[in-house]
Amino acid sequence: MTLPRFRAARLCAALLVAPVAFAPMLATPAHAQWTVFDPSNYAQNVLTAARTLQQINNQITSLQNEAQGLINQARNLASLPYSSLQQLQQSVQRTQQLLNQAQNIAYNVQQIDQAFQSKYANVSMSAPEQQLVADARSRWQNTVGGLQDAMRVQAGVVGNIDTNRAQMSTLVGASQSATGALQATQAGNQLLALQAQQLADLTAVVTANGRAQALQSAEQAAAAEQGREQRRRFLTPGAGYQPGNAQMFYGNK
After folding, report:
1. What's the CA gap between 162 and 170, in Å, rounded?
2. Which are the contacts of 87, defined by CB distance < 8 A and separation ≥ 6?
3. Residue 227's CB: how many other CB atoms inside 10 A?
4. Residue 142 and residue 118: Cα distance in Å, rounded?
5. Non-local CB neighbours of 12 within 8 Å, separated by 6+ positions
6. Could you give the CA distance from residue 159 to residue 55 in angstroms, rounded to a whole number?
7. Spatial CA neighbour of 191 closest among 166, 167, 223
8. Given CB 3.0 to 4.6 Å as the disulfide criterion, which of 6, 75, 137, 250 pairs with 180?
9. From residue 35, how far is each of 32, 38, 40, 46, 208 by CA, in Å?
10. Among 153, 145, 148, which Cα is nearest to 99's?
């Protein structure tokens, strides 16, 4: 083999061995890598995040509604800080005391029956004149006392008007500024109680006036009966007026 051919063979062998020698260097991974963008995956992630955010917003809204519901319940259960019961009871007691102070014939069925039986029944045929006069005076006192009692009850009811006006103003203001259903209901109930107290005063006035009128009518009826009896006695022979001898006194002639 000649020298040129030998060198050519060695060169070919070196070229064959070179890829094997440099193979480990070519297999080492590079540090710089390219990021691959997936549009479908990105859209799915955005949709998932939006749904999660919507769920969180719904939970926040639900919690807010529950908190507002608790606040409303607390307002509805809050009691009215004002009560007019004591003032109304005092007004009723004042009117009741005036009725209990009725003179002579009180508001009692048994006492009324006894008084009418003894003072307003038929005039006794055998009663002396002094007894007739005393009974007539007693009936007159009952009538005057009844009229006075009626006027006193009227004055007491008029005195309650200022108290009722102040209570009504306060309760109406409390009703309009009520923070919940319970306060509004309680204010309405107290307004109804005020109305009931006013009706009680009106009933007391009507009762007192009726009593005074009844006593006056009973006195007139008894007086008419007594007048007939006294007239009968006056016209009865031997029991009426007896003329006597009249003596005239003249001065010295």
Report:
1. 13
2. 163, 167
3. 13
4. 13
5. none
6. 67
7. 167
8. 75
9. 10, 10, 15, 19, 106
10. 153
User: pLDDT (tens digit, 9 = 90+) per residue, 172-224?
Assistant: 998 888 888 888 899 999 999 999 999 999 999 999 999 999 999 999 998 88
d(CA 98, CA 101): 5
The predicted model scores a pTM of: 0.64
Q: What is the pLDDT of residue 196?
A: 93
Q: Are 154 and 208 in contact (CB under 8 A)?
A: yes
Read off φ and ψ for residue 60, nearest 5 degrees. -65, -45
Q: Would you state the structure tokens that stand for residue 74, as one six-digit string?
A: 């607390």
Task: For residue 143, give every residue at least 6 positions away whose Cβ sits within 8 Å of its Cβ, in sequence order, or none.
Answer: 212, 215, 216, 219
Tokens of 243: 């003329």
- The structure tokens listed for 5 are 């051919």
d(CA 80, CA 187): 7
pLDDT in tens, 118-134: 888 777 777 788 888 88
Chain position carrying tokens 């508001």: 107
